[in-house]
Amino acid sequence: MKPDSAGPAATQSLQPATDFQPYIPAERMDVAEFTPKAVIIGVFFGIVFGAATVYLALKAGLTVSASIPIAVLAISLLKKLGGSTILENNVVQTIGSAGESIAAGVVFTLPGFLFLSPESQGASFFEYWTIFTLALLGGVLGTLMMVPLRRSLIVKEHGNLPYPEGAACASVLIAGEKGGDLAKIAFQGVGFAFVYALLQKIVKLIAETPALVTKQTNRFFPSATLNGDITPEYLGVGYIVGPKIAGVLVAGGVLAWLGLIPLLATLVPGDTIAEQLVKLGYLQSLTTAGGPGGWDPATHTFRDTAAAIYRAYVRQIGAGAVAAGGFITLLKTLPTIVSAFQESLASFKEGAGKAVQKRTENDLPITVVLFGSAALILVLAVLPFLPGSVFGRLMLGILIVVFGFFFVTVASRIVGIIGSSSNPISGMTIATLMATCLIFIGIGWTGDIYQPMALCVGGMVCIAAANAGATSQDLKTGYLVGATPRAQQIGLMIGAVAAAIVIGLTMKLLDTPTEAMRAQGIMHRIGTDAYPAPQGTLMATLIKGLLSFNLDWQFVLVGAFLSVTMELCGVKSLSFAVGAYLPLSTTAPIFVGGAIKGLSDFVAQRKGEHVEESELGPGNLFSTGLVAGGALAGVVVAMLSVYGPINDVISRLSMEHKLTELLGAGGYQLLGVFAFAFMSFVLYRVSRRPSRV
Description:
With 693 residues, the protein is mainly α.
């Protein structure tokens, strides 16, 4: 989102701080704010969007901002509960948004425990209490570090740092205060997506992944794949990110699945592919059937050669591309990082001792930050279910606080300029992991047993930086509407607790394999095609490569230079790299959503109409509903399918077998394509409605 498209609050944010007057003046002490109903509803939305974000991030490696959707829904819901003030609505979105940001940081890193070397016993740390602890402490760290930075970045830099999502959220709250039905379209999107997802995932009326795959024996184009997970959440994500990002994402997938895989299928024998799968641990031995692609040792062929090549080679190439893309992004923002840290540290020293005079300047005391950081280090040191000895965990705590303060400062200033969606979290986490691994190597901590410890540092710093970016936007919203900083900071702590509880539960739930998976020896669903967890795999790959020296650097470097090539072509390499890593089935439907956004804007321009750019436009609101409804349906179905008797009932409801017999396999998949086309048409029609805001 562009900073100048956020509405009236964004315009206010360009005024000098000394001239600024918030919507609710500091002198007003009679406006309800931190009320029980605001806290309860905020926690509810934090749980809902936290669970939805876990699902979406595990599947697609992407997240969408939750502050504005929560603000829209809060205004509508609180009206039905007897009304609310603008400050109560702000507390709701502040608490609720913590769920999305912390979930993103957790999912991007902690699944890496499952992909570390077997000798490291990393999978044993992928337990509820470990996830809960790291999520909670990382979220609290991000909030604590923003307490002393609020005056320097939000107040002092008010005229220089627009914080676009925060300004747009303030516009939503102010519009809701003035009246208007903003939530209706978002609720329609939720309902449409939920019904569609149930028809797809339970009734099986809609095929989940229609595919067109050429045979390995094809002379001209072997094992080329064109497919798509035609789900509402992917369509909504594509519309929200827009045609440019969606196009770059799918470009990476096109290169991988219609370029690299057919090329490798032509040049590499099946036995060589199988040997690589054995080396990576995907296949037990060359004489064992199964594994990715369905290896047949009798015929020395795969049932699905494309899937086998993807696991054997393309994922490592994609991992190298993502690592290089994140690192390039970090290098490009290095001048901003250095100046941000210097300026923030200077203004922190300048303003730390100032006395509070107004309600809108009432922060948590600096002692809470200092004692909270010390307590965090001690908690990490004494918890027995975290990796390492007491001394090792103490060192981890120190590294986390040091790296955390630096990258929280960096993340806050960067999102103040370019928005949370462009926050280079992956690059910061990669830098943290590399620095941590180098420190470990320097003190002789090499080998498999130190891999989980390195991931703990990277994971908590990633969670803290992600939460700091969202916290900064929330504090900007509060500054514009006239909120009490202390109330927001306490609310963020509450949101962190609620989010940590539900995130751990959701991740463990989604990781539970089905009976069919257990029969095949698959004990973790995360890491399969259902939930590829791309960033978590990348973090584990980097740690193993640095500490255990078992990385196939030739494939990683090929991916790295793909990212370099994209940068030389003037394309932001990180989106392309994520597309190359993910299955095409993920990026293709996202591209369709982006194309609908581009078509809607093109038609609006041709007719001389206002082009929708704001999150308050009908297309964006409906897309937000598609994302939330589709993701929540996915979580609900996952919960139901874990329980055997209910899973049996779900299986009996499936119409897939009958429809396949009636229409044929191709006809059944075409029926799914028509259903997705209908949903796409509905989204386009909604986007063409005149905006009421």
